[in-house]
Amino acid sequence: MNATTINATKSFRRFALTLSGATALLILLVFSVLWASPVSAQETDGEDFVDGEVVVKLNKATGTTIEDVYSEYPKVDRTRTKTFLASSGIYLLRLQGGSDTAAVADQMKNDTTRLVYAEPNYTTDAPEDSRHMRFRGDNIPEPSSDSARYSNQYAVGALNLPEAHSINKGAGTMVAVLDTGAQFDHPELAGSLVEGYDFIGDDADPSDETNGIDDDGDGNKDEATGHGTHVAGIVHLTAPDAKIMPLRVLDSDGRGNVFVIAEAVQYAVNNGADVINMSLGSSQESQLLNDVIEDLEGDDDQDALENVPEEGVVVVASAGNDNTDEPHYPAAGEEAGGEGVIAVASVNDAEQRSDFSNFGPWVDVAAPGDDIHSLFPTDQYAEWDGTSMAAPFVAGQAALIRSLRPTLLAAGPDDPATPGPDSVESAIGRNARSLDAKNPEYAGKLGAGHADACASVKDLRPDTTCDAATEPPSNTEPSISAVRPTPGSATRDRTPLIVASVGDAETDLTEGVVSLSLDGRPKVDFSYDAGDSDRLIYRSGKLSYGFHTVRISAKDPEGLPANKAWRFKVRR
Question: Is 388 in the active site?
Answer without folding.
Answer: yes
